[in-house]
Amino acid sequence: MLMPEERANELLGEVIDYISTGRNCYETIKELIKIGFKPEELFNYFGFNLLDISDSIEDMEEYDNE
Question: Residue 30 — left, alpha, or beta (φ > 0 → left; ψ -120 to 50 → alpha)?
Fold first, then answer.
């Protein structure tokens, strides 16, 4: 039996909140992007700040270019 999508999203949000509490927000955003989340998903579904998301992506791109 599959978990209802709404409940899965709720649990995923709680896990991300828990991880974010113990880590730097930018590091959490970077890890979520690396595993396949899109910036708009991080904003729309999990409430990450757009400026934090763009700063994290910029930092990732700078690191990749070095």
Answer: alpha
- CA-based nearest residue to 25, from 53, 57, 63, 4: 53
Is 30 inside a domain boundary? Answer: yes
DSSP 2: P
| Rounded CA separation 42/11 (Å) | 15
Taking the model in full, what pTM does it have? 0.74
pLDDT tens digits for 31-56? 999 999 999 999 998 889 999 999 99
Q: E strands along the chain, which residues? A: none
Residue 60 located in a structural domain: yes
Of 3, 42, 50, which is closest to residue 20 (Cα–Cα)? 42
